[in-house]
Amino acid sequence: MLKATRWAWVVSLVAVTGAALVLAFLLSFATNSPALYERYYLWLFWLNVAVAGLLTLVIVIASARLVVRLRRRKFGSRLLLKLAAIFATVGVIPGVLIYTVSFQFVSRSIETWFDVRVEGALDAGLNLGRATLDARVRELGERTRAAAERLAEAAASPRPLALERLREGLDAQDVAITGPAGQTLAAAGGSATSLLPDRPSQTMLRQARLQRVTSQLEGLDEDNPAAAVSARVRALALIPSREFGLGEQERFLYVTQALPQSLAMNALAVQSAYREYQQRALSRDGLRRMYIGTLTLTLVLAVFTAVLLAALLGNQLARPLLLLAEGVRQVAGGDLGVKPVFASRDELGGLTRAFADMTQQLADARSLVQRSVAQVEGARAELQTILDNLSAGVIVFDSLGRIDITNPGATRILRLPLAAYRLRRLDEVPGLAAFGKAIEQRFELHGANLAAGEQPLWQDSFELAAPDPSHPEHSAGEQRASMTLLVRGAPMPQGARLLVFDDITDVVSAQRNLAWSEVARRLAHEIKNPLTPIQLSAERLQLKLESKLRGADLAMLTRSVGTIVTQVQAMKSLVNEFRDYARLPAAMLVPLDLNALISEVLALYSTAQDAGRLHADLGEGLPTILGDSTQLRQIVHNLVQNALDAVADQVDGRVRINTETSRNARGEPRAVRLQVIDNGPGFAEKVLQRAFEPYVTTKNKGTGLGLAVVKKIADEHGARVRIANLGQASPGLSGAGATHGAQVSLSFSKLAPGNSPAAAAATAVADRAH
Amino acid sequence: MAGVALWLGPRAWAATTPALTFFEIDREDDAVALNYVVDFELAPAVEDALGKGIPLHFMAEVEVLRSRWYWRDRRIAHAVRTWRIVFQPLTSNYRVSFGGLSRTYPSRSEALATITRSGRWRIVEPGQVEPDSHHYLEFRFRLDTSQLPRPIQIGIGGQADWTLEVERTQAFS
Question: Distance between CA atoms of A760 and A751, rounded to whole angstroms?
Fold first, then answer.
């Protein structure tokens, strides 16, 4: 912008200089000092040509730039061209008009200078002067000749008085009688100051001899006007000789007459006017060229200046517009940065300022919107995080009942990639057809006929059946057992529906356990009471009747009573087990050494140990744990017995029991782990889920309470029970059975304070003694 | 623009090309003098102008240079002679000015005759010419139109009639 301004200044300066030169030109005309003007004409002319050339160059460059911009379709060039054209037209048209008029005017006026009558008058004046002078010369010649003849008739040598009279008679300046070589013999004249009158020239002497008399004009030269004062006419006449003597020498009468000063001056003035006029006439073409050249140059300079100023003014006008347009384009492109302001006080400047303000406000508004959007985004992201980490499954249906939003919890619980079923109905999801329909039904049921003030919320539990294994969409990894879901539904605005569900299989299982233990307790109580009388009655019957019966009757009695007793015994033990399960006494937690306890229990299984079917691998230096020795003993017993039962049919069946300390990152003991591992057939998949529920068993005989009791005791001790089937790469088991097996592990995390194995052992010993 | 065209017009040689009928370099001891005779006729346009009282200027210009192989040739002498001839219609005679001297001649041929020849025009004073060096002389005789009144100059620009010029370059030792 600054550069353009500087350029504008330079160009204007050049243009103004050119104009000033032309003005000086014209001024020199006006002041009518042709000499000065003519002397510097060429210099001025070429200077102007140079200025014009410079301006042409600038205009050519500017035009080329404009054309290039137009070609490239650079923004704003069209406007610039238009403005420049308008201004240039405004400048050029008056210039051309004035030029045309002036051209005509100059041509005509130069022609009018030269007039035939003026020329004729000058010629006539000159001829008049010449005729006058000629007449004077001739007259003096005639009179001189007459005087010479008079002298010839008179005495041989005239007296000076006679000569003086002659001079006065001739009205001459000097009169002299000269010899044949022009030497003065006698003289009389006013120019006495000069000692001798000048001598006639040889030419004159020759002419005088031939024609008897000659006369001529002298000193009337244009190059020294001062000499015009001394212009004079000379006449030389041969004085005829009467005696034709040989000794007689030739004599001449030499007369000099001064020309009247006014006559000489007038004649010279006419001559100089004539010369001047002729000179002008000759230089007519040159003059016209000069004037017209000056005019043309003026026009060219003026036009160029106009064009340049037009371009500059156009630029000046267009710049704020271009600024605005550029800004608008940027805004359209999304750039709401600070816009430049055109620093002028006029409306265009105000426009750019207003535009900049507007853009600023727009930018502020946009940043505000962005900030609030970011806030909303943040809130949403937080919500999403909560949703993602929610253990409960969440599904949002849109108004058409299609799945809209799901969370990872839902996927985890249903073990289906629900996100992949977005915008599909829930009953289109394989395996969930019945579930989907049921939910739909619930929503419709609760959505319609609401009582006043009733919340349209519902909650229900669903038993989700295990999927059909033959279904092709279920790979082995996605298999799941049947599960119980607690489902809550709530309508959302715009007809959407929210479904929240939880896997409550574990809760249900726990409830079932509780119910069973209650049943078992009551049943045991009710059954156990009559059992003792039954047994006692049967034994009394045998005691009483044994002596009275013989033979087959006795045998039958004995057998029947035996049956009754054994069955009652069996029932008793069954009832006891139930009681044990239902009414386990509250655990008395005391510090004890788990290894010692296990060794004690395993003493009962010495036969199995000896047969190599049972193997204990007890870790060293176990910390003592808090536990009830009686209950823990039962756990170990149950687990070992179960394992042995599981491998009873196998020849190479083996059971391993091991203990170890699990430590945390700092190396401190965190828990004591007890593992019972067998290489039997393992748990069935169905059983695995509900192994800890009563009456779930893999065995043909047994109450199915074993693991239930284990679980219950473990809960009492705050220990965690995990059961698993061993995979192929399970280490620690060798032989053919290594490929499968079952593992039950217990982690006791309640460690005795002030732990040391020795103290624990002591406590255990004390406990045993008790 | 018309002015530009005026100056770029073609220049042709006059119909009556002036000729140097006699040209002699005279060595008098160490000095150099020039004798020459130029033969020319005035073109009708020039004669017309002269007859109307326009003063004409003739110029003879001589330059003596010494050849130098290593640099521009050195100018050792430069002499110019200028004549002014004007017709005086009042007395029908021609006046020739040469330097401070003026003479009046009754006829044109007499007046021009004084211009066309120069004898024993001493150009180089003794001692200026080096005996071993090579010298040459450039002579130019022309009608000096730059002394004409400026409008006439512009009017006659490029006219062949007004071009009267003869040149001669001659070496001497």
Answer: 11
Tokens of A298: 């003026």
**Integer Cα distance of A176 and A190 in angstroms:** 12
Distances from the Cα of A222 to the Cα of A120, A413, A417, A603, B114, angstroms: 21, 136, 129, 170, 20
DSSP 8-state secondary structure symbol assigned to residue A697: -
List own/partner pairs for A167-173 with CB under 8 A and 24 or more apart.
A167/A255, A170/A140, A170/A143, A170/A144, A170/A255, A170/A257, A171/A257, A172/A140, A172/A255, A172/A256, A172/A257, A173/A232, A173/A256, A173/A257, A173/A258
Structure-token pair, residue A78: 């069209």
Structure confidence by residue, pLDDT tens digits, A381-440: 998 898 888 888 888 888 888 888 888 888 888 888 888 888 888 888 887 888 888 888
Q: Phi and psi (nearest 5°) for A627?
A: -165, 165
* pLDDT tens per residue across span A469-515: 444 444 444 445 678 888 888 888 888 888 888 888 878 887 887 88
A222, A267, A300: residue with CB nearest B1 = A300
Q: Which CATH architecture has domain A140-267?
A: 2-Layer Sandwich (3.30)
| Amino acid residing at A304 | F
Neighbouring residues of A409: CB distance < 8 A, sequence distance ≥ 6: A387, A388, A390, A391, A392, A393, A394
* B89 contacts A41? CB cut-off 8 A: no
Give me the DSSP letters along A489-510: EEE-GGG-EEEEEEE-HHHHHH
Quick: pLDDT tens for A250-302.
788 888 888 888 888 888 888 888 888 888 888 777 777 777 877 887 787 77
Domain locations along chain B? 14-172
Domain boundaries A590-769, corresponding CATH code: 3.30.565.10
Nearest partner of A675 among A625, A621, A742, judged by Cα? A742
Residues of A in contact with B155 (CB under 8 A): 282-287, 289
Q: Flag if A279 and B149 touch (Cβ within 8 Å).
A: yes
Distance of CA A326 to the CA centre of its chain: 15
Q: Name every residue in B having a CB less than 8 A away from some CB of A.
A: 1-4, 6, 49, 52-54, 86, 88-92, 95, 97, 102, 104, 149-157
Q: Could you give the strand order of the β-sheet that contains A614-618, starting from the edge strand earlier in sequence?
A: A614-618, A655-663, A669-678, A742-748, A720-725
Query: Mapping DSSP to helix (H, G, I), strand (E, B) and coil, where does residue A438 land?
Result: helix
Alpha helices per DSSP H over A76-159: 77-113, 116-153
B150 and A129 within 8 Å at the Cβ level: the answer is: no
Integer Cα distance of B141 and B80 in angstroms: 10
Residue B157 with chain A: CB contacts under 8 Å: 286
How far is residue A483's CA from residue A502's CA, in Å, rounded to a whole number?
10
CATH superfamily of A390-448+456-468+477-503: PAS domain (3.30.450.20)
- Interface residue A29 vs chain B (CB under 8 A): no
ipTM comes to: 0.76
Nearest residue, CB atoms, B154 vs list A270, A279, A290: A290
Confidence (pLDDT) at A735: 41
- Residue A206 makes CB contacts below 8 A (sequence gap 6+) with none
